[in-house]
Design brief:
The protein has helices at about 5-10, 15-25, 30-75, 80-105, 110-130. The protein has about 140 residues and is mainly α. It starts with a helix and ends in an 8-residue tail after the last helix. About 0% of the residues are buried.
C-alpha cells in the first residue's frame, strides 16, 4: 500500500482513492501523468517563492519602521512625546497584560476574558518584538 493510500484511508477513506482514480482516468499515458506531477511541483515551487517574497516584504516593512524610529530618537527637534511614545506603549501594555492575568479568573465570563487576553498577548508580543527585536528565526 502506497503512502497516498494510507493517508487517504486515514483522512478521508475512499475520497482520496476516488480522486486518484479520477486522475488515472483523465491521464491515460505515463507521460501525461508525469507532466501533471511536474506541473504540480512547479506550482508548489511558485507558492514557496511567493511565500519568500512575502516574508522579505515583511522584513523590509519592519526594518523601515525601525529606521524611522531611530531617526526620531536621534533628532534634536523631536518632541518628548515623539521620542517616548514607544516606551509609554511598552509600559502600558505590560501593566495591562499583568493586570489581565491577575484578574482574568475572577469574572464570570471566563471564555470572553481569555479570548481577549489571547488577543492582547498576541499584540503584546508584536509590539515588544517590534521595539525590542524578535527572536523569530523567520524574521532574522
Amino acid at each position: 500500500m502506497k503512502w497516498i493510500d494510507k493517508l487517504g484511508n486515514l483522512l478521508g477513506g475512499d475520497l482520496l482513492t476516488k480522486a486518484k482514480d479520477i486522475i488515472d482516468e483523465c491521464f491515460t499515458s505515463e507521460e501525461e501523468k508525469n507532466n501533471f506531477v511536474l506541473e504540480l511541483e512547479k506550482q508548489k515551487l511558485e507558492g514557496k517563492t511567493i511565500d519568500l517574497e512575502y516574508i522579505s516584504l515583511q522584513i523590509e516593512d519592519v526594518k523601515s519602521a525601525r529606521e524611522a524610529n531611530v531617526k526620531i530618537q536621534q533628532s534634536e527637534n523631536a518632541s518628548w512625546l515623539a521620542k517616548n511614545t514607544p516606551y509609554i506603549i511598552d509600559i502600558s501594555l505590560n501593566i495591562i497584560f499583568c493586570a489581565s492575568i491577575v484578574f482574568a479568573f475572577i469574572t464570570e465570563d471566563k471564555e470572553l476574558i481569555l479570548f481577549c487576553l489571547g488577543m492582547l498577548t498576541a499584540r503584546f508580543g508584536d509590539v515588544v518584538g517590534f521595539h525590542r527585536g524578535s527572536s523569530s528565526k523567520v524574521k532574522r
